[in-house]
Write a structure and sequence with these properties.
Keywords: Membrane, Transmembrane, Transmembrane helix. This is DUF1468 domain-containing protein. Pfam families: TctB. This protein is an all-alpha fold and 163 residues long. It folds into two domains: 9-76; 87-152, no CATH class. Helix content is 66%, strand content 0%. Helix 1 (12-38) runs antiparallel to helix 2 (52-73) and helix 4 (110-124) packs antiparallel against helix 5 (131-152). The longest helix is centred in the N-terminal third of the chain and has 27 residues, at 12-38. It is flat and about 55 Å long. The chain starts with 11 loop residues before the first helix and ends in an 11-residue tail after the last helix.
C-alpha cells in the first residue's frame, strides 16, 4: 500500500487541543450572546446587537463543530509526536503581538496596528515570508475598518493618518 493510500493517524494532543479550543469558543459564544441580548434597544435600523449577536452564534457553531470533530477523532488518535520546537516561544510572540496591538491601537490607528498583528501572527505561524503577507494583512484590516467605521458607524481608532 502506498503512503498516500494509508489513512493519516491523528495526534492525540491535537485532538485534545481542538476539543479545548472548541470549549473555549462555546464559552465565549455564551458570553457574547448574553452581552448582546443585554444591550439597550434603540429605534435605529441597525441596533447595537446587530454585530455581536451573529458573531456569538457563529462562535457557538464553530465551537460545537470542533467539539464534535474532536469527539469523532479521539478513539482513533495516536500517541503522536513531541511538541514542535520553539512552540512556547511562538505562543509568547503571539501574546506579545496582541499586547502590542492593544497598546499601539490608540496611537497608530486600527488599520496599521491590525495589519501589524496579522503579519506578526502569520509569520509566527510559518506563513511564507513575502510581500503577500503584508498585502493580505493590510487588505483585511482595511476592509474591516471600512465595514465597521464607514458602513456600520462604529468608530474605530483612525490614527494620525486618518485610517
Amino acid at each position: 500500500m502506498a503512503d498516500e493510500d494509508r489513512p493519516v493517524q491523528v495526534d492525540r494532543h491535537t485532538v485534545l487541543a481542538t476539543a479545548a479550543f472548541g470549549g473555549l469558543l462555546l464559552a465565549a459564544a455564551v458570553l457574547v450572546i448574553v452581552d448582546a441580548v443585554r444591550l439597550p434597544a434603540t429605534s435605529a435600523v441597525v441596533g447595537p446587537a446587530a454585530v455581536p449577536l451573529p458573531v456569538g452564534v457563529a462562535l457557538g457553531v464553530v465551537g460545537a463543530l470542533l467539539l464534535v470533530d474532536a469527539r469523532r477523532q479521539l478513539p482513533g488518535a495516536g500517541a503522536g509526536t513531541a511538541w514542535q520546537a520553539r512552540a512556547g516561544l511562538r505562543v509568547l510572540g503571539l501574546v506579545a503581538a496582541l499586547v502590542g496591538f492593544a497598546l499601539l491601537l490608540p496611537l497608530l490607528g486600527y488599520v496599521v496596528t491590525a495589519t501589524a498583528l496579522f503579519v506578526a501572527a502569520a509569520l509566527l505561524l510559518d506563513a511564507p515570508r513575502d510581500w503577500r503577507v503584508l498585502a493580505w494583512g493590510w487588505a483585511l484590516a482595511a476592509v474591516v475598518f471600512l465595514v465597521f467605521d464607514r458602513l456600520i458607524g462604529l468608530m474605530l481608532p483612525a490614527g494620525p493618518w486618518g485610517f
